[in-house]
Write a structure and sequence with these properties.
By secondary structure, this protein is of the alpha+beta class. The protein is 50% helix and 21% strand. The chain has 9 helices and 7 strands. It has helices spanning 3-14, 20-32, 34-53, 61-80, 87-105, 107-112, 118-134, 146-153, 241-252; strands spanning 141-142, 172-181, 184-193, 196-204, 211-218, 221-228, 231-237. The protein has a 7-stranded antiparallel beta sheet with strand order 1-2-3-4-7-6-5, with helices on both faces. A hairpin with a 2-residue loop joins β5 and β6 (221-228). α2 packs across α3. The protein is globular. Bound molecules: zinc ion. Zinc ion is lined by residues 3, 6, 29, 33, 35-36.
Length: 253
């Protein structure tokens, strides 16, 4: 892959808009090319800065619904006009604009608020993460194979967590363990991103419907939370917020 081609694809890569084959091609290039790696780093920094420093305004339910609708329309329009020229630029511009709109308008809801008790659970999630790293009890079942890890939980838990290996996207599954959180046994899935460990905790949710990703930061750790199909997912790591969010996005797809 040439630098020109890679440059066009870095932003869609960060927005998780590439298919697995394309993504790993770009990632392979970035691993061997300092210029493109630097560009990726700049994008990530920019994204973090927007998230951290952009002013927050509370959006009304009505405005949220409007934005949701507009994004959905933009997404289907994008599907329709995939002309061979320029769709990549279009896609990355749209992705970046969408990220900005979300950061500015949905900020408080998406990134800071959560159902009551969310902050307390987030604290517990961080404690469990730190404990798992200190007590050398990170992994009960060591495997990068989701078909080994998933059945390992059967019989140990009364629910079945989604187990997904994101190795090709740079978040390698390394294993799983049982943990105890929010007053109950939970699944702990362990992933590795460079030298960073990601713990993904999963347990049944009482909420009726799924929720979008919310991001927290507590004492140097980043946390991303979402729920889907009756389960809640809490990802925690000392990895930067942008990449942890990318992990969550890929995992929740
Ligand atoms: Zn390059």
């Amino acid at each position: 892959m040439t630098c020109d081609a890679a440059r066009e694809l870095i932003s869609p890569l960060l927005d998780a808009e590439l298919d697995a084959a394309q993504a790993s091609e770009v990632e392979r290039h970035i691993q061997t090319c300092i210029a493109c790696a630097e560009l990726q780093f700049e994008y990530l920094q920019l994204r973090e800065r927007v998230r951290a420093d952009a002013p927050y305004y509370s959006a009304t339910e009505e405005l949220r619904a409007q934005i949701d609708r507009a994004l959905r329309q933009a997404a289907s329009a994008k599907e329709r006009r995939r002309a061979p020229w320029g769709w990549i630029a279009l896609a990355s511009a749209a992705g970046f604009a969408a990220a900005l709109v979300l950061a500015f308008l949905l900020g408080p809801k998406m990134f800071h608020s959560e159902q009551a008790g969310g902050d307390l659970i987030a604290q517990e999630v961080v404690s469990s993460h730190v404990r798992s790293l200190m007590a050398s009890h990170l992994i009960d079942v060591r495997s990068s194979d989701q078909h080994t890890v998933k059945p390992w939980f059967a019989g140990k838990l009364d629910f079945s967590p989604k187990v997904k290996d994101l190795g090709p996207q740079g978040y390698a599954l390394t294993g799983g363990r049982l943990d105890y959180l929010d007053g109950r046994p939970v699944a702990g899935l362990v992933f590795q991103r460079r030298q960073h460990v990601i713990n993904l905790f999963v347990w049944p949710s009482t909420a009726q419907s799924g929720s979008r990703l919310s991001t927290f930061a507590i004492t140097g750790f980043n946390i991303v939370h979402w729920s889907e199909a009756g389960l809640m997912y809490w990802a925690v790591s000392d990895l930067n917020a942008a990449e942890l969010r990318e992990f969550a996005q890929l995992y929740s797809e």
